[in-house]
């Protein structure tokens, strides 16, 4: 087994010293060693990919669709994506010049942030937030600016946004809006989206609108930021969450052609092109009536699971903003237990073999919370809530 020459250890990009491994993955790995552990840690849908989507991938393989596709993705999947965005959200994008097919939404995040940032640029991050944005910003030479939304029920208000803009001035290059939110499940209604757009329209800030959970909204239809601010918005979406296709690794970037042309440079030199069979499956998912029906069936199941977990946890004394989308519960630890979320989550895992992610993994405002994913079967969730109930009751008896 070779060992690196010691002098080479100082050869890396110095910004990597600012980056820590994913706290979500680190905690998941830690608790995985506990016997009989029941993990609700990762945002991984438990559904199988619908059969007609799998068959589209198989057909791509058997048809020998094995050569390089266009860097921005096959025209078929880009046309399907354009139709999907128009049908669901009333957005108009040209398939040829305004959409890029990425290797998951995560490559889309990397592509956008890397393309935009120069050293010293600032990125506004309303927190708690999906933590990937933080290291990507740091490695890109940028500075994350956190806006803690916990005092406002995890909703970024126009006043909070104006204050952050006033405090950091023209060094702000971009803002990330992730809704429905990972980790809170909070989303924005039409009036709230429009109000934020009015503030941002007066600036030159690029809006990175991460709407990967847009198909999983429960109480109202999703409203995209691109509806009100298309000239400044780079939209992220994909099929991972909507169609349980996390392993297929297909995401979408959409925006004005002039911006997308720039993004295409980093995308092209990073991954060359996505996988053909996965793109064929995504075209089926996004471009057919059957694909739309698939999402509706999954969403109905998620909503029932949400209601069960929400009711159970609130009855146990957790404060929970009722999720309007995605498939997460972000719960405030009851006041009669430690507010050290890492210690609480670790103790729960060790004593009762059920694992949630500590809320501090998601940035300022997440301290004292835990996140669990209800993208699991009802039987699994019932067992998890039974174990959680036993832990809480035992803790109160001590």
TrEMBL record:
Known EC number: 2.6.1.-
Sorted UniProt keywords: Aminotransferase, Pyridoxal phosphate, Transferase
Enzyme class, UniProt record, top EC level: transferase
GO molecular function, one term: transaminase activity
The name this protein goes by in its record: Aminotransferase
Entries under SUPFAM superfamilies matching the protein: PLP-dependent transferases
Annotated ranges, domain Aminotransferase class I/classII large: 36-388
